[in-house]
Structure formats: structure tokens, C-alpha cells
Specification:
alpha/beta, Archaeosine Trna-guanine Transglycosylase, Chain: A, domain 4, Ribose 5-phosphate Isomerase B, Chain: A, 23 strands, 28% helix
Length: 493
């Protein structure tokens, strides 16, 4: 088994695929060095001398500079590397991409909604418009599980603390995101639950929602009825009768929308799991399907890789505005853009934000970027989309669901149990995590470090996604883990 991987010919570092002992000789692409340190799996080793101030090259891109002279064989990490990032960037559109060759779409067994949209689940969702009714929503779900029968596959609610005491952009974002969830095709029936005195009024919600099918979406204001549990249960019964009419049928993969996310990343994320997802993304978009890439702060330092693949200058400008907008968000709060990676990321071998970002964007494969969506926006153009959102796992996974993702691919090197409203497929970067956390991890991409070609791993992931789309439950679904978190920036009244 290989001990090192040299990702790009221009790289002056390699990544350990397994632990390396001090004074051990290791080889990458014909270059042999003696390790000067004990180096853990996922961490970097210098393949040649790097002078103080010299660029550290990984993935073919600079991920920082040497804060002191580094000898060949030395461990390369936070003790001798500094970021090159700053808050100011000037972007120019220099397109560099090739359209993917079309592929005949595969099929999955999904649901066809009355409006023609595809779905992969047939569930009932209770959407609270305000945090004050969270407990009512949870009781309705708890006491109406008998409705989960036949083709109705689940009954869920998504508590949150917002919908009142918010102003401006925060109020608009809450309204926009909750309405987007109510439109999600995986919900065969939706009960929108309000209190009656909140500033996210039901009239505002309906205006944001736009046209709706009154068989699929019901509304209840708790202050307007004597017994909200009785009234809510009656409405859920109606929704269950409607949703129960749907049956699975063959649907082309060109109608799938898949969100892509990473969290608890390690030094193998950009080598195994993320590029595996990238290969999958290229396959699905070649079949006419759609994928969504988010986590804007984890594009900092690697945004050029995506910007040069924007299909035209209009899409590029939206991408530049999104990146600069997030940098302004950081600066407006007195924060630097490079206050990342997390302690867990660093322990796993990620050194700088550029290191993390270059690995993160591997999930986007090589397809052209066809559109850039605002937070709360929804996919309208088939292909690879970028979505504005933070790196926070739960906030960004909620935004991916609201954007229309039927399911979410979540790569991780350290593991995490949470689940988004859409089925969340956890993908391990290393086999040790897969074997340790079989109750969390659905798919092992650690096999890439053991010799599986990335193209083969990508096709294996495509097969897995089609099975999940056809009804195979993820670990988070089997545990009943469904959560949301809404992006907030301003004051609370």
C-alpha cells in the first residue's frame, strides 16, 4: 500500500495515506525522502526544500507560504506555514473549461408530483412559521405517527427559534427559507403552522410561497382555534389521504437535484471523498441532472478554480458578487476571512483555509458552473450550481434542501450524526471512520486511498445515490435525525 500521495505534479508536498514514523524513508512519484518527524495520516510532508516565504503547493495551487525554511522530509503544518489570504480580491473572468460529454440518463424509482416535479420521498412535513409553536408541531408529529402508512414514508417537523423579533434581511431570509421548504417535492403534504401574533404573518408566508396546491398545503393559526392539536390532526389526516395516492415510478436521473457538502474534514477529504463526489457530479450533470455546491467561506483561496468554469460572464459576475459579499459580511463584523480551519480540521491535517478550500471545491468536479443562487434561492438551471451560504454544516445543509436538493452528499473525515430535511448521505474519507461509525456513515470513499480509481468510486457513488433516490434509507433517516438551522445576521428585537 502507498504511504504517500502526490496530488499534482507541481506540488512540493505530499500527503500521508497512513502514519509515517520519524526516520522512515517514503516515496512519492519517484521522489524519496526520509521523514524528519512522526507524521499522521492526512498530514503533509515536504518533498523538497522550501525556503522561508516560499509557496506551499498542493492540488497544483498555493495553499500558503513557509513561515520558516522547511527541509525535505519535514512535517508541513501550522507550525511552519501561514495563509496568503486577505480581505481584498479583484476578480477577472478568464474562462477555462470544457463542456462535459452528454450521457444517457440512468433511472431511479421516485414519485411524480401533480405539478410534474420529481421527488425521492413521500413525507408529511409540519413547518412552524415561528419558534413559539415548535412544541405544538412536535406534539402533532408525535401523536400522528399512525398516518405513516402505505406510501406515506414519514411525518416530520423542523423546529427553529425565528419568525418573530426579526427585521430586514433576517426576517426576509427566514420567510424565504421556510417557504422554500414548504415547496420541496419530497413533502407530499405540508402543514404550515403559525401562532397568530408573530411578525412573520401567514399572509406574508402565503405571498412568499406563491401559488400552491390546496390539497398539498394546509395552514393553521393556533390562536384562531380552540384546540390546535385537534385542528392540526384533522388537517394532517387530509394531507395523509392526499399524499397516500402517490406511488413510485421510473424517473430519469436527469430530474435529480443533489446537494454537496463537507464537514469534519481531514487531510484526505480533498484526495478521496471530495473528488469522488466531484466524479459523481460530473456523471449526473452529464446525464442532464443538477448538483449544488455551497459553503462560500470554504471557497476562499480556491474561488478561482470555480470562477474560471463559469459558463459566461453573467454567471461569473454573480459568483464574484457572492464571494465579495461574504468577505464584506466577515469584515462588517470585524472578522478576518481566514479564521478557519477548525481545530478538528487541523488535527486531521488541514493547515490553512486555502488548503481546506482547494479540497472543498473538489466536490464540484470539472463541469461548467451554470448559475449562482442567493441564500434561499432554488435551482432553475440544470447543471452545476453554486449557492450562497456559510460553511456551518446545519445552516448550509438546510439551504441546500431549500434550494431543491432531493438529497445531500456529505463528506467527512471525522464523522457527524446530524441529518438535513433531505436524506443526507454521509461519505467517509477514510476506511477507519467507516468501520468505526457504521451507524453514521453510508458510503466509504476511503477505498480511493487504498487504490480504487476515482472514476470507479464516482460510479459506485452514482449507483448508491440512485438506490437512495429509489427509497433506500440513509443512516440519518433510520435514526430519525432531521434538523434545520436558518442563517441570521442582524439584531433580535
Amino acid at each position: 500500500m502507498m504511504k504517500l500521495i502526490h496530488i499534482h505534479p507541481d506540488d512540493n508536498v505530499a500527503v500521508a495515506l497512513s502514519d509515517i514514523r520519524r526516520s522512515e524513508s517514503v516515496t512519492a512519484d519517484g521522489v524519496t525522502v526520509m521523514s524528519a518527524d512522526d507524521i499522521q495520516r492526512g498530514h503533509k510532508i515536504a518533498l523538497r526544500e522550501i525556503p522561508e516565504g516560499g509557496k506551499i503547493i498542493k492540488y497544483g495551487y498555493p495553499i500558503g507560504h513557509a513561515s520558516r525554511s522547511i527541509k525535505a522530509g519535514e512535517w508541513v503544518h501550522v507550525h511552519n506555514v501561514k495563509t496568503d489570504l486577505s480581505e481584498e480580491s479583484d476578480y477577472r473572468y478568464v474562462p477555462n473549461f470544457k463542456p462535459l460529454q452528454p450521457l444517457e440518463p440512468a433511472q431511479f424509482q421516485g414519485y411524480r408530483r401533480a405539478d410534474g416535479r420529481a421527488a425521492i420521498r413521500n413525507e408529511l412535513w409540519v413547518i412552524p412559521t415561528v419558534g413559539c409553536v415548535n412544541s405544538v408541531a412536535q406534539r402533532l408529529v408525535r401523536e400522528n405517527q399512525h398516518l405513516v402508512t402505505g406510501s406515506v414514508e414519514g411525518l416530520y417537523t423542523f423546529p427553529h427559534p425565528f419568525g418573530c423579533s426579526q427585521m430586514g434581511d433576517d426576517h426576509a431570509q427566514t420567510r424565504r427559507l421556510l417557504a422554500a421548504l414548504a415547496r420541496h417535492p419530497n413533502a407530499g403534504g405540508v402543514l404550515v403552522l403559525g401562532l397568530g401574533c408573530e411578525n412573520l404573518t401567514m399572509e406574508q408566508f402565503k405571498e412568499e410561497l406563491g401559488e400552491w396546491d390546496d390539497q398539498r398545503v394546509k395552514f393553521l393559526i393556533c390562536q384562531d382555534v380552540a384546540d390546535e392539536h385537534e385542528a392540526g390532526s384533522a388537517l394532517l389526516q387530509q394531507l395523509a389521504e392526499y399524499a397516500g395516492q402517490f406511488r413510485r415510478e421510473a424517473i430519469p436521473a436527469s430530474e435529480l437535484v443533489v446537494g454537496m457538502k463537507c464537514g469534519g474534514s481531514d487531510g484526505l477529504s480533498g484526495i478521496t471523498a471530495n473528488p469522488t463526489v466531484g466524479r459523481f457530479s460530473d456523471l449526473l450533470t452529464s446525464m442532464g441532472g443538477s448538483t449544488i455546491l455551497t459553503e462560500v467561506p470554504e471557497m476562499f483561496g480556491a474561488e478561482g478554480i470555480l470562477m474560471e468554469r463559469c459558463q459566461d460572464e453573467a454567471v461569473f459576475q454573480k459568483a464574484a458578487d457572492m464571494i465579495n459579499g461574504f468577505k464584506h459580511y466577515f469584515a462588517s463584523h470585524g472578522q478576518v476571512v481566514y479564521e478557519n480551519p477548525s481545530p478538528g480540521n487541523k488535527a486531521g491535517g488541514i493547515t490553512t483555509l486555502e488548503d481546506k478550500s482547494c479540497g472543498c471545491v473538489q466536490k464540484g468536479g470539472s463541469a461548467p458552473v451554470v448559475d449562482v443562487l442567493p441564500y434561499g434561492g432554488q435551482v432553475k438551471t440544470k447543471g452545476l450550481n453554486m449557492l450562497s451560504g456559510p460553511g456551518n454544516d446545519l445552516v448550509s445543509a438546510t439551504a441546500l434542501t431549500a434550494a431543491g436538493a432531493h438529497l445531500i452528499l456529505f463528506t467527512t473525515g471525522r464523522g457527524t450524526p446530524f441529518g438535513a430535511p433531505a436524506p443526507t448521505v454521509k461519505i467517509s474519507t477514510n476506511t477507519a471512520l467507516y468501520e468505526k461509525k457504521r451507524g453514521w456513515i453510508d458510503f466509504n470513499a476511503g477505498t480511493v486511498a487504498e487504490g480504487e480509481p476515482l472514476d470507479a468510486a464516482g460510479r459506485r457513488l452514482l449507483d448508491h445515490v440512485l438506490h437512495v433516490a429509489g427509497g433506500e434509507r440513509t443512516c440519518t433517516e433510520r435514526h430519525g435525525f432531521r434538523e434545520i438551522s436558518i442563517f441570521k445576521d442582524g439584531v433580535v428585537l
